[in-house]
Amino acid sequence: MKNVLCLRHLYIGGAITIALVAGYYGLRELLGPGYLQAVYDNELGGRYLQTIEGHSKPRFFYFSRLFETRMQYWLPVVLMGTAAGMMDGKSQLGRLTRFLTFLCLTYLIILTRMETKLEWYDVPLFPFLSLIAATFIVLVVNAIAKRKWWVGTVGKWGFVCFVLAVLFFPPYSASFEKTRNPENKKWKYMLSYCLQDAVRGKIEIDGLTVPMDRYSPQYHFYLEILKQDGVDVTRKSWSQLVPGETVLATDRDRKKMMEPLYAYLLIRDVGNAKVYEILAKR
């Protein structure tokens, strides 16, 4: 560490980086006054020090997600890779693993201190955690390849392929099954299933309005196909609905979005959703 701190290239590189970043932000502020304040409010002070839009989670939210869902299959491999890298003080793989471990821990600590917590904030970690897992796999494969007690090359590499297949099969099979049949979060896709049935001609939604406020490209895909097929379906914001309009909505959207804004009447069930008539604004 002492040798690294004594390298002049470290300080030259740091100075160049600081100059480029400062130049970018300074130029951006000149072109659009108020940019620095917006960065502070949204990236530094605002969402970091305060909870925005109700996105409050437990302090160790990201750590628990790594164990429970994000890397439930790969985390043991990552931890073994970290341990191997810490014990290997000379090789390039060992140095790489220690650097990646420090990088991931630093980022996790920053996220943990943040008050606004969203599910996708930990996504930048995954490439680096994957590299740590990969370094351990490489160490295991190299250790097997150096052994002398294998009967021929075929037997040695056949065993390597078997170990890798056992390692990779559980996470990839789980991902495939979740994509093919996402029952555990089916409530998130109810409207998508309904629009998909409409595209296939199983249900009729002609003349209905589909209200949505959030960015939902999975809905837009089906809506564009329906419009091309001549189906009269309209997309609106929840706040733009008017009395007399008939809308397509799921139970979850009805409770969360429609009830606070409108008096309504249930008309009929349509697949995984329902058709409501807007009676009046509240």
Short description:
Among the domains are: 12-44, no CATH class; 187-281. Helix content is 59%, strand content 11%. The chain is built from twelve helices and five strands.
Primary descriptors:
282 residues; 59% helix; mainly alpha; three-stranded antiparallel beta sheet; 12 helices; 11% strand; two-stranded parallel ribbon; single chain
General description of the model:
There is one protein chain. It is extended, with a radius of gyration of 27 Å. It has helices at 2-5, 8-31, 35-44, 46-49, 61-70, 75-87, 92-113, 125-145, 152-180, 190-199, 217-228, 251-258, and strands at residues 208-211, 233-236, 246-249, 262-270, 273-281. It has 282 residues and is mainly alpha-helical. Among the domains are: 12-44, no CATH class; 187-281.
